[in-house]
Every structure is written in structure tokens, then in C-alpha cells.
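Listing S7. Sequence submitted for prediction.
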Amino acid sequence: MTENSDSLNIDNALLDPGSVFSSPEELRDHPGLTSEQKIEILRRWAYDASELEVAEEEGMPGGEPSQLSGILAVLDALTGGFDVDHSPPTKQKGL
């Protein structure tokens, strides 16, 4: 994590989770966040990661390797499943 536990800025985590947490598991295990905060951050992180995967599919490579599968696994564990049926349709198949 780029910030220590005492100085976690929730706004930064919501805007750019990857700049605050090195992995979805680190976010999951953070003691200073509620389950609701973790889920919201993971949902935003999943959307960002899926957008990057679409960009790469469309020939715009670059950036860090995708953590989408790890993000979705942690999100699934916290929520009991990612609800793609009630998510807006996107090129990412509902993310």
C-alpha cells in the first residue's frame, strides 16, 4: 500500500484504488475500512480494470497488467456474487 493505515484517504481510494492498494487482497484485509467501503472501492476498481482490458483489446496497449480477476474474486467473496444482471450494459459485459 502506498499510504500507511493511519493516513488512508478514502477519496483517493475511491478515485484510484490501484494507487492506494497494491492488490485487491490488501484492500480486503484493510482493517480501517467498512465492508461497504471495500465493496464500493472494489466496484470502481473493477470498472477501471475492465475499461483497461477493453482498451487493450482495441489495440491500445500499455499500463499495468490487469487485476480484474483478482478484483472480482474479492468482490465476490465480500458480496456473495457480483450482480451483472443489475449493472449497466457495457462492452465489459455488465461491469
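Caption to Listing S7: primary sequence and predicted C-alpha cells for the chain studied. The chain has one domain: 5-86. The two ends are 25 Å apart (CA to CA).
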